[in-house]
């Protein structure tokens, strides 16, 4: 199986410049004993400093978000070429906080995905059901439509730029984690959905990360599942020791 293991830290709106540099320096002092690609996503204003601080390190930097337009009158936004110009080629799109607080829907995410792909970026595409969906046994339908609506117009070749991050909304920042079995069940469903719409090669090659209260204490068990190829880590990515315990769970 050729797909990559990935552990990505989504720092959200945390860490100022000096805190960013301090955490990154601490991360570079840690040893990656496994085979996971490590990615960190600091806030936009610190992306350039992050790239500079991590020069010579294997740790990659990703942006947390990006505007769909190339440039123009979009006060407060950042474009793909701005991200590219500081040496970054990876962007997180569709995070549930962007969907919930900034009203990002499937149509907008389609545009963002297209812009990112046009710039040759890797997209860490987040999606996942809410608690209500799971209670009503709609979680498979919700996940399937989130994927189909924003990603299934891509060609099979373009899928080499996609990393999927399944993040059940009820597990994000709540301390509640999907059980390893629930994660595996959904990841297998996702891979199967990709396989049905594309082909088995595309499905086998896409890395599917799990996100939602991954911690040093539960990472190993979650990552041991065959269709879980890594994690998107929020809270626990803000401490070097915790984050690297998770990285080294592979
Ligand atoms: P959490 O966040 O690890 O703090 O639950 C995960 C995420 O939002 O990506």
Explain the overall architecture.
The chain is α/β, with parallel strands linked by helices and 250 residues long. The chain is built from eleven helices and eight strands. The protein has an eight-stranded parallel sheet. The protein is globular, with a radius of gyration of 17 Å. It starts with 5 loop residues before the first strand and ends with a helix. The model has no long low-confidence stretch (mean pLDDT 96). The site of 2-phosphoglycolic acid has 13 residues, from strand 8.
What's the order of the H and E elements? EHEHEHEHHEHHEHHEHEH
**Main sheet, how many strands, which sense, barrel?**
8 strands, parallel
What hetero molecules are in the model? 2-phosphoglycolic acid
Distance between the termini: 15 Å
The fraction of residues assigned to DSSP E strands is 5-15%
Number of helices: 11
DSSP helix fraction: 40-55%
Work out the radius of gyration. Answer: 17 Å
Question: How many strands in all?
Answer: 8
Overall average pLDDT: 96
From the spread of the alpha carbons, the general shape counts as globular
Arrangement of strands in the largest sheet: 3-2-1-8-7-6-5-4
Unreliable spans: none
């Amino acid at each position: 199986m050729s797909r990559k293991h990935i552990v990505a830290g989504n720092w959200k709106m945390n860490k100022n410049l000096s805190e960013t540099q301090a955490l990154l320096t601490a991360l570079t002092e840690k040893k990656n004993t496994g085979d996971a690609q490590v990615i960190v996503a600091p806030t936009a204003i610190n992306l350039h400093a992050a790239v500079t601080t991590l020069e010579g390190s294997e740790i990659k930097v990703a942006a947390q978000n990006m505007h769909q337009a190339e440039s123009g009158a979009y006060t407060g936004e950042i474009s793909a070429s701005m991200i590219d110009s500081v040496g970054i080629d990876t962007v997180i799109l569709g995070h549930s906080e962007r969907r919930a607080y900034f009203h990002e829907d499937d149509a907008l995410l389609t545009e963002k995905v297209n812009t990112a792909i046009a710039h040759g970026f890797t997209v860490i595409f987040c999606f996942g059901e809410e608690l209500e969906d799971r209670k009503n046994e709609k979680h498979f339908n919700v996940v399937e439509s989130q994927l189909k609506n924003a990603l299934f117009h891509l060609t099979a070749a373009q899928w080499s730029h996609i990393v999927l991050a399944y993040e059940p909304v009820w597990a994000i920042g709540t301390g509640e984690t999907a059980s390893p079995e629930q994660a595996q069940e959904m990841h297998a469903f996702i891979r199967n959905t990709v396989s049905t719409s594309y082909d088995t090669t595309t499905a086998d090659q896409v890395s599917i990360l799990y996100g939602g209260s991954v911690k040093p204490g539960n990472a190993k068990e979650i990552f041991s599942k065959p269709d879980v190829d890594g994690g998107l880590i929020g809270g626990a990515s803000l401490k070097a020791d915790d984050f690297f315990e998770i990285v080294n769970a592979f």
